[in-house]
Design goal:
Elements: E1 2-11, E2 22-33, E3 36-48, E4 54-66, E5 78-95, E6 98-119, E7 122-145, E8 148-178
Antiparallel strand pairs: 1-2, 1-8, 2-3, 3-4, 4-5, 5-6, 6-7, 7-8
Length: about 180
């Protein structure tokens, strides 16, 4: 029943569609068994693309962490783990010329990580994860007439896509205490 809170940052080095490659967010971990932890997180990916449009991605997720070698803190300096979970991402696109358009995508996350223990209450986390997600296509176009830029947008809800992303996350976590 141990509970932790943490701050996190994620790097997505292979971005598409003018998305941001760096996010920041927060997480809560709840230890449910000796070698199993759960993690609930939120990441925010802000970006501005070449059309002066603002694209914001907010990812919410839940992950199970499994520690194969030993419990999370047993006097060891580090604890390796495997992770498996799911996420939902909301992507919104807006600029001064168009109304905001949104889409949701769902994903499956699998990864491996390492916790470096500073002391029994504080740890740094490093994880590499693969995120496969499915959602609707979000398209936008730009046309320019004379000195005025006219921008039109559309969201194709019927066309679905699959996208794979390789993510690298770092986190700083603090143990609040035991719930049970």
């Amino acid at each position: 029943g141990e509970i932790q809170i943490g701050l996190r940052g994620t790097l997505n080095p292979f971005v598409k569609n003018d998305a941001s490659c760096i996010s920041y967010g927060a997480q809560i971990r709840l230890k449910v068994a000796r070698r199993i932890n759960t993690e609930f997180f939120m990441d925010y990916f802000p970006s501005i693309n070449k059309l002066n449009s603002t694209r914001n991605d907010i990812r919410l997720g839940a992950i199970a962490l499994y520690y194969p070698l030993h419990e999370i803190y047993t006097g060891k300096e580090c604890t390796p783990y495997f992770s498996l979970g799911a996420s939902a991402t909301n992507t919104s696109l807006s600029n001064p010329y168009i109304t905001e358009i949104n889409r949701w995508s769902l994903g499956l996350i699998v990864g491996a990580g390492l916790l470096l223990h500073i002391n029994p209450k504080v740890d740094f986390g490093f994880v590499s994860q693969y995120l496969g997600q499915i959602g609707s296509t979000l398209k936008y176009t730009s046309t320019q007439t004379s000195d005025v830029r006219e921008v039109s947008s559309s969201a194709a809800v019927s066309k679905t896509f699959y996208e794979g992303q390789l993510l690298f996350s770092m986190s700083l976590n603090y143990t609040l205490g035991d719930l049970w």
